[in-house]
Design a protein that fits this description.
single chain; 346 residues; mainly alpha; 13 helices; 2 strands; 35% helix; 1% strand
């Protein structure tokens, strides 16, 4: 080999090494933090993201997982299947949940909003932490019927998920804990606080109440607020509200605690967004709010665990009913069900 050729090859190696030195391994950028804001006048939430730093990338990953049907055994059911945004993340029109292989559950899919203030989850309070709440529907044989080993394998085969987990956690390791934490970031951000009632309480434009609505507010505070405490419109307690057990004979809280005193107790639901979340009660037995009021007036089923507040029912005049229903409509939050941050990205 001539000296000229040796020199040229040497110089090419020098240049190549120089270029390599100028291109170090890429650095993973830190995830962008976002803030969870407590609405004005609301109490401190139970879940506050202290051990789950809230980031844009974490929220977006949680949203993608929430709407991903691969979290179910048949790859057909996602969290978003039974919790649809247009119905305040409930399942409109279904009295009880519908899962894999068209299997039917025994309880109505509750709406998902303001979850950070919940002390316990599900109608029976069987779970006490937001980060582990998704385990139940994922593993329930009549809902998603899947296990995390299978889910993790599915996600590992998806290059986009590898990138997303790296963006959130600094590496592409996909674990059940990371899945649950990002789901909690998405669900924890589902805050509904832009109803007419909220604007009225904050004295903002759009919060002007009619006479009927104001009368209804006073009726609500007299007859309903003991259980449906403002501003969340639930005290998150468990009560027997006089529903006669169906053929399913769902024992509610008693199924969890095995205590006779908890038989037929169910979690008090929020009264927000009722326009979007029909049917009502733990088994979806009432399609209209009028039917709910009829129950409290004449349909109370007496039993050993009936809440003492309902021993005489709730009897309202026709005008009081009309005004109360007018007020309940002020709790609907159209901005929430249309919020683009929570929409599935297709």
């Amino acid at each position: 080999m001539s000296n000229i050729k040796k020199y040229v090859m040497y110089m090419m190696m020098v240049v190549a090494l120089g270029l390599y030195a100028c291109h170090p391994d890429p650095v993973v950028e830190a995830a962008k933090e976002i803030q969870f804001e407590i609405p004005k006048g609301w109490p401190q939430p139970v879940y506050q993201f202290e051990n789950n730093p809230l980031t844009v990338e974490g929220f977006e990953l949680g949203k993608k997982l929430f709407f991903d049907t691969r979290l179910s055994r048949t790859n057909t059911i996602s969290c978003g299947t039974c919790h649809q945004q247009f119905s305040a993340f409930a399942q409109i029109g279904h009295d009880v949940s519908h899962g894999v292989d068209d299997k039917i559950g025994i309880r109505n899919s509750p709406p998902l909003f303001n979850l950070n203030w919940h002390t316990r989850f599900f109608w029976d309070g069987g779970v006490n932490h937001l980060e582990v709440q998704p385990i139940n529907p994922i593993q329930n044989p009549v809902e998603m019927d899947e296990n995390f080993d299978n889910i993790i394998q599915k996600l590992k085969n998806d290059a986009d998920y590898q990138k997303r987990f790296t963006a959130v956690f600094g590496n592409d390791s996909i674990t059940s804990q990371r899945i649950l934490k990002t789901l909690a970031q998405f669900m924890g951000m589902l805050v509904s606080n832009q109803s007419k009632y909220d604007k009225y309480m904050r004295q903002e434009a759009g919060g002007e109440m009619t006479t009927a609505e104001l009368n209804g507010l006073q009726i609500f505070r007299t007859h309903c607020a003991a259980c449906h405490k403002e501003p969340l419109f639930s005290d998150f307690s468990f009560r027997n509200n006089g529903l006669k057990p169906s053929v399913v004979n769902d024992s509610g809280r008693g199924h969890v605690t095995l205590q006779p005193s908890d038989m037929y107790l169910f979690k008090v639901p929020s009264l927000r967004n009722l326009l979007y979340t029909s049917p009502y009660m733990h088994d979806g037995r009432f399609v209209t709010l009028e039917a709910v009021l009829n129950h409290y007036a004449t349909g109370i089923h007496t039993s050993a665990t009936l809440d003492p507040l309902l021993s005489n029912g709730i009897n309202l005049t026709p005008q009081e009913r009309k005004d109360l229903l007018a007020f309940l409509q002020t709790l609907n939050d159209e901005e929430f069900i249309r919020d683009k941050r929570f929409q599935e990205q297709r």
